[in-house]
Design goal:
alpha/beta; Rossmann fold; Dehydroquinate synthase-like, alpha domain; 2 domains; two-stranded antiparallel sheet; 14 helices
Length: 370
Protein backbone atom coordinates (compact mmCIF):
# COMPACT_ATOMS: atom_id res chain seq x y z
CA UNK A 1 0.00 0.00 0.00
CA UNK A 2 1.38 3.44 -0.91
CA UNK A 3 0.83 6.35 1.48
CA UNK A 4 1.59 9.92 0.39
CA UNK A 5 0.84 13.26 2.04
CA UNK A 6 0.85 15.77 -0.81
CA UNK A 7 -2.05 18.18 -0.03
CA UNK A 8 -3.96 15.30 1.58
CA UNK A 9 -3.19 11.99 3.22
CA UNK A 10 -3.62 9.59 0.26
CA UNK A 11 -3.93 5.80 0.46
CA UNK A 12 -3.45 4.43 -3.06
CA UNK A 13 -3.56 0.83 -4.28
CA UNK A 14 -5.80 -2.07 -5.12
CA UNK A 15 -7.74 -2.94 -1.99
CA UNK A 16 -7.17 0.44 -0.33
CA UNK A 17 -10.89 0.75 0.47
CA UNK A 18 -10.31 -1.82 3.23
CA UNK A 19 -8.45 0.91 5.15
CA UNK A 20 -11.56 3.05 5.66
CA UNK A 21 -11.95 2.28 9.37
CA UNK A 22 -8.26 2.97 10.01
CA UNK A 23 -8.66 6.36 8.34
CA UNK A 24 -11.85 7.16 10.25
CA UNK A 25 -9.98 6.38 13.48
CA UNK A 26 -7.00 8.46 12.34
CA UNK A 27 -9.25 11.51 11.95
CA UNK A 28 -11.28 10.76 15.07
CA UNK A 29 -14.54 10.39 13.14
CA UNK A 30 -16.98 8.32 15.18
CA UNK A 31 -20.25 8.71 13.25
CA UNK A 32 -19.72 9.54 9.57
CA UNK A 33 -22.26 10.43 6.93
CA UNK A 34 -21.51 8.52 3.73
CA UNK A 35 -22.43 10.69 0.72
CA UNK A 36 -22.87 8.85 -2.57
CA UNK A 37 -25.21 8.65 -5.57
CA UNK A 38 -27.74 6.11 -6.91
CA UNK A 39 -25.37 4.75 -9.57
CA UNK A 40 -22.60 4.01 -7.08
CA UNK A 41 -25.09 2.43 -4.70
CA UNK A 42 -26.63 0.28 -7.45
CA UNK A 43 -23.16 -0.86 -8.51
CA UNK A 44 -22.77 -2.21 -4.94
CA UNK A 45 -19.71 -0.05 -4.31
CA UNK A 46 -21.38 1.31 -1.19
CA UNK A 47 -21.69 -2.25 0.11
CA UNK A 48 -17.99 -2.82 -0.59
CA UNK A 49 -17.14 0.25 1.47
CA UNK A 50 -19.33 -0.26 4.52
CA UNK A 51 -18.32 -3.90 4.96
CA UNK A 52 -14.98 -2.51 6.18
CA UNK A 53 -16.56 0.03 8.57
CA UNK A 54 -17.07 -0.68 12.26
CA UNK A 55 -18.32 2.84 12.96
CA UNK A 56 -21.97 3.70 13.31
CA UNK A 57 -22.80 5.56 10.07
CA UNK A 58 -25.61 7.14 8.07
CA UNK A 59 -25.99 7.30 4.28
CA UNK A 60 -27.17 9.99 1.88
CA UNK A 61 -27.35 8.39 -1.58
CA UNK A 62 -29.45 10.86 -3.57
CA UNK A 63 -26.68 13.06 -4.98
CA UNK A 64 -27.78 14.24 -8.45
CA UNK A 65 -25.49 14.13 -11.47
CA UNK A 66 -24.92 17.88 -11.11
CA UNK A 67 -25.07 18.52 -7.33
CA UNK A 68 -27.63 21.07 -6.24
CA UNK A 69 -28.20 23.42 -3.33
CA UNK A 70 -31.37 21.47 -2.53
CA UNK A 71 -29.39 18.22 -2.27
CA UNK A 72 -26.81 19.89 -0.02
CA UNK A 73 -29.52 21.02 2.39
CA UNK A 74 -31.13 17.56 2.36
CA UNK A 75 -27.81 15.85 3.10
CA UNK A 76 -26.95 18.44 5.75
CA UNK A 77 -30.25 17.69 7.51
CA UNK A 78 -29.37 13.97 7.61
CA UNK A 79 -25.91 14.86 8.94
CA UNK A 80 -27.17 17.20 11.66
CA UNK A 81 -30.21 15.18 12.74
CA UNK A 82 -28.07 12.04 12.95
CA UNK A 83 -25.36 13.62 15.08
CA UNK A 84 -22.63 12.96 12.51
CA UNK A 85 -19.11 14.29 12.98
CA UNK A 86 -17.47 13.67 9.58
CA UNK A 87 -18.24 12.96 5.94
CA UNK A 88 -17.16 10.08 3.71
CA UNK A 89 -17.63 10.86 0.00
CA UNK A 90 -17.92 7.82 -2.28
CA UNK A 91 -18.26 8.43 -6.01
CA UNK A 92 -17.20 10.82 -8.74
CA UNK A 93 -17.01 14.59 -8.57
CA UNK A 94 -20.66 15.07 -7.69
CA UNK A 95 -20.75 13.19 -4.35
CA UNK A 96 -17.33 14.59 -3.44
CA UNK A 97 -18.44 18.17 -4.14
CA UNK A 98 -21.67 17.59 -2.22
CA UNK A 99 -19.69 16.23 0.73
CA UNK A 100 -17.49 19.34 0.70
CA UNK A 101 -20.56 21.57 0.76
CA UNK A 102 -22.10 19.61 3.65
CA UNK A 103 -18.87 19.82 5.65
CA UNK A 104 -18.58 23.55 4.92
CA UNK A 105 -22.13 24.45 5.92
CA UNK A 106 -22.02 22.25 9.01
CA UNK A 107 -18.90 23.98 10.28
CA UNK A 108 -19.59 27.53 9.06
CA UNK A 109 -23.36 27.88 8.69
CA UNK A 110 -25.22 29.98 6.14
CA UNK A 111 -25.93 29.09 2.52
CA UNK A 112 -23.53 27.82 -0.11
CA UNK A 113 -23.69 31.06 -2.11
CA UNK A 114 -22.32 32.93 0.93
CA UNK A 115 -18.97 31.33 0.01
CA UNK A 116 -19.02 32.03 -3.74
CA UNK A 117 -15.52 32.77 -5.02
CA UNK A 118 -16.92 35.34 -7.45
CA UNK A 119 -18.12 37.54 -4.58
CA UNK A 120 -15.14 37.01 -2.29
CA UNK A 121 -17.01 34.65 -0.01
CA UNK A 122 -14.52 31.82 -0.37
CA UNK A 123 -11.91 33.81 1.55
CA UNK A 124 -14.03 33.45 4.69
CA UNK A 125 -13.57 29.67 4.87
CA UNK A 126 -11.54 28.26 7.75
CA UNK A 127 -11.18 24.67 8.94
CA UNK A 128 -14.18 22.54 8.04
CA UNK A 129 -15.68 19.28 9.25
CA UNK A 130 -13.33 16.44 8.21
CA UNK A 131 -13.89 14.65 4.91
CA UNK A 132 -12.62 11.35 3.56
CA UNK A 133 -12.93 11.16 -0.24
CA UNK A 134 -13.05 7.86 -2.13
CA UNK A 135 -13.21 8.39 -5.93
CA UNK A 136 -14.94 5.76 -8.07
CA UNK A 137 -14.06 7.42 -11.38
CA UNK A 138 -10.70 8.52 -12.79
CA UNK A 139 -11.61 12.03 -13.81
CA UNK A 140 -12.47 15.08 -11.73
CA UNK A 141 -9.62 15.02 -9.23
CA UNK A 142 -12.14 16.47 -6.77
CA UNK A 143 -10.72 14.19 -4.09
CA UNK A 144 -7.70 16.51 -3.80
CA UNK A 145 -9.27 19.62 -5.33
CA UNK A 146 -9.84 22.87 -3.45
CA UNK A 147 -13.17 23.64 -5.14
CA UNK A 148 -16.75 22.52 -5.10
CA UNK A 149 -19.36 23.48 -7.68
CA UNK A 150 -23.06 23.64 -6.86
CA UNK A 151 -26.16 24.46 -8.87
CA UNK A 152 -28.14 27.01 -6.89
CA UNK A 153 -31.90 27.08 -6.54
CA UNK A 154 -32.13 29.64 -9.37
CA UNK A 155 -30.23 27.30 -11.74
CA UNK A 156 -26.94 29.20 -11.75
CA UNK A 157 -23.60 27.67 -10.79
CA UNK A 158 -21.74 28.60 -7.62
CA UNK A 159 -18.00 27.95 -7.37
CA UNK A 160 -16.50 27.74 -3.89
CA UNK A 161 -12.69 27.67 -3.82
CA UNK A 162 -10.49 27.36 -0.75
CA UNK A 163 -7.63 25.05 0.27
CA UNK A 164 -9.58 24.15 3.43
CA UNK A 165 -12.07 22.28 1.23
CA UNK A 166 -9.47 19.64 0.33
CA UNK A 167 -10.44 16.35 2.04
CA UNK A 168 -8.19 15.39 4.93
CA UNK A 169 -7.83 11.80 3.69
CA UNK A 170 -8.21 10.26 0.24
CA UNK A 171 -8.58 6.55 -0.48
CA UNK A 172 -7.82 5.71 -4.10
CA UNK A 173 -8.66 2.08 -4.93
CA UNK A 174 -8.41 1.35 -8.67
CA UNK A 175 -10.52 -1.75 -8.11
CA UNK A 176 -13.55 0.52 -7.59
CA UNK A 177 -13.17 1.78 -11.18
CA UNK A 178 -13.05 -1.61 -12.92
CA UNK A 179 -16.77 -1.60 -13.64
CA UNK A 180 -16.92 1.85 -15.24
CA UNK A 181 -18.72 1.75 -18.62
CA UNK A 182 -16.60 2.73 -21.66
CA UNK A 183 -18.34 6.06 -22.24
CA UNK A 184 -17.92 7.17 -18.62
CA UNK A 185 -14.30 5.97 -18.73
CA UNK A 186 -13.70 8.17 -21.78
CA UNK A 187 -15.54 11.27 -20.57
CA UNK A 188 -14.04 11.26 -17.08
CA UNK A 189 -10.62 10.38 -18.46
CA UNK A 190 -10.66 13.32 -20.86
CA UNK A 191 -11.76 15.52 -17.96
CA UNK A 192 -8.59 14.45 -16.11
CA UNK A 193 -6.55 15.04 -19.27
CA UNK A 194 -8.02 18.54 -19.58
CA UNK A 195 -6.84 19.32 -16.05
CA UNK A 196 -3.29 18.38 -16.97
CA UNK A 197 -3.32 20.34 -20.22
CA UNK A 198 -5.02 23.48 -18.92
CA UNK A 199 -2.98 23.75 -15.74
CA UNK A 200 0.29 23.15 -17.59
CA UNK A 201 -0.33 26.08 -19.95
CA UNK A 202 -1.89 28.29 -17.26
CA UNK A 203 -0.30 31.72 -16.81
CA UNK A 204 0.33 31.08 -13.12
CA UNK A 205 3.88 30.18 -12.04
CA UNK A 206 4.08 26.89 -10.15
CA UNK A 207 6.94 24.61 -11.30
CA UNK A 208 6.00 21.60 -9.09
CA UNK A 209 2.45 21.71 -10.43
CA UNK A 210 3.77 21.82 -14.00
CA UNK A 211 5.77 18.65 -13.39
CA UNK A 212 2.73 16.86 -11.99
CA UNK A 213 0.57 18.15 -14.86
CA UNK A 214 2.91 16.64 -17.45
CA UNK A 215 2.93 13.32 -15.61
CA UNK A 216 -0.87 13.43 -15.46
CA UNK A 217 -0.97 13.95 -19.23
CA UNK A 218 1.51 11.12 -19.83
CA UNK A 219 -0.41 8.62 -17.71
CA UNK A 220 -3.82 9.47 -19.16
CA UNK A 221 -2.65 9.63 -22.78
CA UNK A 222 -0.90 6.26 -22.47
CA UNK A 223 -3.79 4.42 -20.83
CA UNK A 224 -7.16 5.97 -21.65
CA UNK A 225 -7.73 3.89 -24.78
CA UNK A 226 -6.62 0.71 -22.99
CA UNK A 227 -9.11 1.37 -20.19
CA UNK A 228 -11.85 2.27 -22.69
CA UNK A 229 -11.52 -0.89 -24.77
CA UNK A 230 -10.78 -3.23 -21.85
CA UNK A 231 -12.28 -2.01 -18.60
CA UNK A 232 -10.74 -4.94 -16.73
CA UNK A 233 -7.16 -3.90 -17.55
CA UNK A 234 -5.90 -3.43 -13.99
CA UNK A 235 -2.68 -1.68 -14.98
CA UNK A 236 -4.56 0.85 -17.14
CA UNK A 237 -7.10 1.47 -14.38
CA UNK A 238 -4.29 2.04 -11.86
CA UNK A 239 -2.57 4.52 -14.17
CA UNK A 240 -5.82 6.34 -14.98
CA UNK A 241 -6.65 6.82 -11.32
CA UNK A 242 -3.10 8.01 -10.62
CA UNK A 243 -3.31 10.48 -13.51
CA UNK A 244 -6.68 11.79 -12.31
CA UNK A 245 -5.26 12.24 -8.82
CA UNK A 246 -2.35 14.25 -10.21
CA UNK A 247 -4.81 16.28 -12.29
CA UNK A 248 -6.61 17.22 -9.10
CA UNK A 249 -3.39 18.09 -7.30
CA UNK A 250 -2.44 20.71 -9.89
CA UNK A 251 -5.78 22.52 -10.09
CA UNK A 252 -4.46 25.24 -7.77
CA UNK A 253 -2.29 26.44 -10.70
CA UNK A 254 -5.48 27.52 -12.46
CA UNK A 255 -7.45 26.25 -15.44
CA UNK A 256 -8.55 28.09 -18.56
CA UNK A 257 -11.12 28.64 -21.27
CA UNK A 258 -12.20 24.99 -21.49
CA UNK A 259 -13.50 24.96 -17.94
CA UNK A 260 -14.62 28.58 -18.12
CA UNK A 261 -17.10 27.38 -20.78
CA UNK A 262 -17.95 23.92 -19.45
CA UNK A 263 -19.04 25.24 -16.06
CA UNK A 264 -21.85 27.53 -17.30
CA UNK A 265 -22.75 25.03 -20.04
CA UNK A 266 -23.20 22.53 -17.23
CA UNK A 267 -26.21 24.57 -16.12
CA UNK A 268 -27.91 23.04 -19.17
CA UNK A 269 -27.51 19.62 -17.46
CA UNK A 270 -24.77 18.49 -19.85
CA UNK A 271 -22.02 16.09 -18.75
CA UNK A 272 -18.93 17.97 -17.62
CA UNK A 273 -16.32 15.57 -19.02
CA UNK A 274 -18.07 15.31 -22.39
CA UNK A 275 -18.24 19.09 -22.63
CA UNK A 276 -14.50 19.33 -21.97
CA UNK A 277 -13.82 16.74 -24.66
CA UNK A 278 -15.79 18.69 -27.26
CA UNK A 279 -14.43 22.10 -26.28
CA UNK A 280 -10.75 21.31 -25.70
CA UNK A 281 -9.48 20.97 -29.32
CA UNK A 282 -11.02 24.34 -30.19
CA UNK A 283 -9.47 26.08 -27.17
CA UNK A 284 -6.03 24.58 -27.79
CA UNK A 285 -6.20 25.81 -31.38
CA UNK A 286 -7.27 29.28 -30.21
CA UNK A 287 -4.49 29.41 -27.60
CA UNK A 288 -1.77 28.00 -29.84
CA UNK A 289 0.14 31.22 -30.50
CA UNK A 290 0.04 32.15 -26.80
CA UNK A 291 1.39 28.81 -25.52
CA UNK A 292 3.04 27.14 -28.52
CA UNK A 293 6.17 25.96 -26.68
CA UNK A 294 4.17 24.38 -23.87
CA UNK A 295 1.76 22.68 -26.26
CA UNK A 296 4.78 21.29 -28.12
CA UNK A 297 6.12 19.93 -24.82
CA UNK A 298 2.76 18.22 -24.26
CA UNK A 299 2.96 16.74 -27.76
CA UNK A 300 6.39 15.29 -26.96
CA UNK A 301 5.15 13.82 -23.67
CA UNK A 302 2.26 12.16 -25.50
CA UNK A 303 4.69 10.84 -28.10
CA UNK A 304 3.44 12.74 -31.15
CA UNK A 305 5.77 13.02 -34.14
CA UNK A 306 4.30 16.41 -35.10
CA UNK A 307 5.18 18.99 -32.40
CA UNK A 308 2.08 20.95 -33.38
CA UNK A 309 -0.17 17.88 -33.59
CA UNK A 310 -2.00 18.18 -30.26
CA UNK A 311 -5.23 19.53 -31.74
CA UNK A 312 -5.48 16.71 -34.29
CA UNK A 313 -4.65 14.14 -31.60
CA UNK A 314 -7.45 15.45 -29.37
CA UNK A 315 -9.91 15.37 -32.27
CA UNK A 316 -8.88 11.82 -33.15
CA UNK A 317 -9.35 10.80 -29.51
CA UNK A 318 -12.89 12.19 -29.55
CA UNK A 319 -13.62 10.26 -32.73
CA UNK A 320 -12.26 7.04 -31.19
CA UNK A 321 -14.61 7.47 -28.24
CA UNK A 322 -17.62 8.50 -30.37
CA UNK A 323 -17.86 11.84 -28.59
CA UNK A 324 -20.37 14.39 -29.92
CA UNK A 325 -19.03 16.30 -32.89
CA UNK A 326 -20.15 19.70 -31.59
CA UNK A 327 -22.01 21.49 -28.82
CA UNK A 328 -24.93 21.65 -31.23
CA UNK A 329 -25.01 17.85 -31.25
CA UNK A 330 -25.34 18.03 -27.46
CA UNK A 331 -28.40 20.26 -27.74
CA UNK A 332 -26.78 23.69 -27.24
CA UNK A 333 -28.53 26.38 -29.28
CA UNK A 334 -27.44 29.78 -30.55
CA UNK A 335 -29.83 31.59 -28.19
CA UNK A 336 -27.77 30.74 -25.09
CA UNK A 337 -24.43 31.93 -26.52
CA UNK A 338 -24.45 35.52 -25.12
CA UNK A 339 -25.30 34.35 -21.62
CA UNK A 340 -22.73 31.51 -21.62
CA UNK A 341 -20.04 33.79 -23.07
CA UNK A 342 -20.67 36.46 -20.46
CA UNK A 343 -20.45 33.97 -17.60
CA UNK A 344 -17.28 32.42 -19.03
CA UNK A 345 -15.58 35.81 -19.33
CA UNK A 346 -16.42 36.72 -15.73
CA UNK A 347 -15.32 33.49 -14.07
CA UNK A 348 -12.01 33.13 -12.22
CA UNK A 349 -11.28 30.15 -14.50
CA UNK A 350 -10.81 32.48 -17.45
CA UNK A 351 -8.14 34.59 -15.75
CA UNK A 352 -5.42 31.95 -16.04
CA UNK A 353 -6.03 31.05 -19.69
CA UNK A 354 -2.80 31.75 -21.64
CA UNK A 355 -4.65 34.01 -24.10
CA UNK A 356 -6.77 36.90 -22.76
CA UNK A 357 -10.45 36.07 -23.25
CA UNK A 358 -13.28 38.60 -23.31
CA UNK A 359 -16.97 37.87 -23.84
CA UNK A 360 -16.69 38.52 -27.59
CA UNK A 361 -13.87 35.94 -27.80
CA UNK A 362 -16.09 33.35 -26.18
CA UNK A 363 -18.95 34.26 -28.50
CA UNK A 364 -16.75 33.54 -31.51
CA UNK A 365 -15.51 30.31 -29.93
CA UNK A 366 -19.04 29.14 -29.16
CA UNK A 367 -20.25 29.83 -32.71
CA UNK A 368 -17.39 27.66 -33.96
CA UNK A 369 -18.39 24.92 -31.53
CA UNK A 370 -21.99 24.80 -32.78
Amino acid sequence: MALSTYLSRVQFDFGAVSLIQDELDYLGIVRPLVVTDPGVKNAQLLDRLVEHMNSDYLVYSDTPANPTEQAVLAALAVFSDGGCDGVVALGGGSPIDLAKAVALLHSHGGLINDYNVQTGGSAKIGDITPIIAIPTTAGTGAEVGRACVMTLADGTKCNVVNLNLIPKTVICDPELTLGLPPMITAATGIDALSHGIETYVSKQINPPAEGLALDCIRRIASNIEKAYFDGTDRSARWEMLAGALEGGMVLQKGLGAVHALSDPLGELKLHHGTLNAVIMPHVVELNRDSAREKYQTIARVIGLKDPDGLVDWLRDLNTTFSMPSSLGAMGVTEEVIPDIAGKAARTHLSKTNPRPMAAEDYIGLLHGLL
